[in-house]
Amino acid sequence: QVQLVESGGGLVQPGGSLRLSCAVSDFSLENYAIAWFRQAPGKEREGVSCISSTDGSTYYTFSVRGRFTMTRDVAGSMAYLKMNDLESEDSAVYYCAARKGRCANVNSTPWRGAYDIWGQGTQVTVSS
Known about the structure:
By secondary structure, the chain is mainly beta. It has strands spanning 3-7, 10-12, 18-25, 32-39, 46-51, 58-60, 68-73, 78-83, 92-100, 105-106, 109-110, 117-118, 122-126.
């Protein structure tokens, strides 16, 4: 069964770090791009980053560039989002999502409508 399962969320102080994981079942990261999205209360779900299927190219929305890094383990069917220097504005439920082929972005920001496989989300709270 095609499935994405996120983990690694939690409570962290401003300036701290977290690493989110996305476990992939029943498809290969060689053929599917993986993206991270996030949704804060009362706000729309926004794209954060993406890693492409073919060559592992990464893309980041402007607000997280230089702070977040996305990687993948193709053999292990895992994708990761390392988040450094976290800010209160980063608090949200984080979702991983997949689509066949390459990343689908608008100005390096993943476009929600192009991704058709979604995980259940993991909560990230940045607070002192």
